[in-house]
Amino acid sequence: MLIDFSLRNWRSFGEKAGFSLLPSGERRFAWTLPAFASAPRRLLPIALFYGANASGKSNLLSGLHFLAHLVICGREVGEETGVDTYQLDPDKISEPILFSVLFRTHEHVYQYEMVLTKKEILKERLLRISGKKEIVLFDRNRGRMEFHQSVWTQRADFVFEGTQDNTPFITSAYRQRIDFVAEPYLWFKNSLVFIDANQCYEDADIFENNSSFQERLSEYLARYDTGIHKIVSRESIFRNDEFFDSILKDMVSSTDKRFVQVRKTSDTISVRKLYFVRKDRLGNNVFFDVKNESAGIKRLLDLLQILVNIEVNENDEQVYIVDEIDRSLHVHLLSAILSDYLGMCSARTRVQLVASTQAPILMNRDLLRCDEIWLTEKKAACSTLYSLAECKSSVLTKSLPVDRIMEKLYREGRLGGVPKIVIPPLPVYKKLED
Description:
The protein has 2 domains: about 1-195 and about 325-410, P-loop containing nucleotide triphosphate hydrolases (Rossmann fold, 3-Layer(aba) Sandwich), CATH 3.40.50.300; about 205-300, no CATH class. Helix content is about 25%, strand content about 25%. The chain is built from 10 helices and 17 strands. It has helices spanning about 55-75, 155-160, 170-175, 180-190, 210-225, 240-255, 295-310, 330-345, 390-395, 400-410; strands at about 1-10, 15-20, 45-50, 95-105, 110-115, 120-130, 135-140, 145, 190-195, 230-240, 260-265, 270-280, 285-290, 320, 350-355, 375-380, 380-385. The strands form 3 sheets. It has a 7-stranded antiparallel sheet with strand order 2-1-4-5-6-7-8. Strands 9-14-15-3-16-17 form a 6-stranded mixed sheet. Strands 10, 11, 12 and 13 form a 4-stranded antiparallel sheet that branches. β5 and β6 form a beta hairpin. It is globular. The termini are far apart.
């Protein structure tokens, strides 16, 4: 689970900024917080980011996405790292970028830090934290490496010597089966699930007819007033030869690839496509190709798969990171999704949702805690980040009960995180021109 993430000199974030999923002293919805036997004993199950357009919401989430991708995939020989530095200060363009992430996996707590430029990784450090005890498992600094004595081997030294300047050591070490990096590496690879504004989420179980995953997904679609009775897949079998390969290419290219599943054997090609089933006025089933549905229904399908995956795979440790979670969705649908998600959370769950949004309706004291809401804002052309819990303690007074009217205060700009635009009023009455 994600505990804390911070960055510096990344895109619109010239100075260091970050967010935490450690709870404040607020008692509201305490039952939704995952609990652990060791510190940190509680974590928040959700974090929502608000802010004006171009305030830094997407840049914040993209920083974590970039770090995860770099850790998982590394870089090819001679390839640049791919970082985007802050461009509005000439002094910072050539400065290195900092990423730092604190997380828990399999009851162990790790902190992973990286400092890098466009050309190379300057520093890289992995810590394992047990209570107040911190062990620096490895510390890479400008071509030199120090290992903790408990994990050092000659083979680890050898792997570091072969690690390129543009590639994380944790990546090379995992590929060479160095055991002590496996757990943190797999957290980046398996636990972080990114769904940005132009990327969709797809669970392979959605294609399995009569599976618990598909049946539960159908129940949600019916319950959310979509008019959809159920979702099913239909299968076509082709011979595996060049003629049918060409037909297959035409079929796949003419539809949305995430709604098609292709399986090949030595003799055949199986193509499964997703369909929504609706009832006509006589009660008969009518099949609709999912690719022809509206953008809102497709977005709903993405988010509902997250809910069903949490239900079906109760023991999974996953952090779903969704940019523009409200894209193409009615606000009431979005409220229902978050309510259903938080209703699943408990001391035993190990799932989190981190998302950006522009929907003030979610600033609801009957849905979220103040420490689960964050705001991004531009100050001196640089993105900043702060939580609503900070507003509650410093910006507001006892005469302004933020728990009760936080949506109204946000709309009025009292909490920040909104565009600073002066809108002249339209005249109620105006003389008609000839």
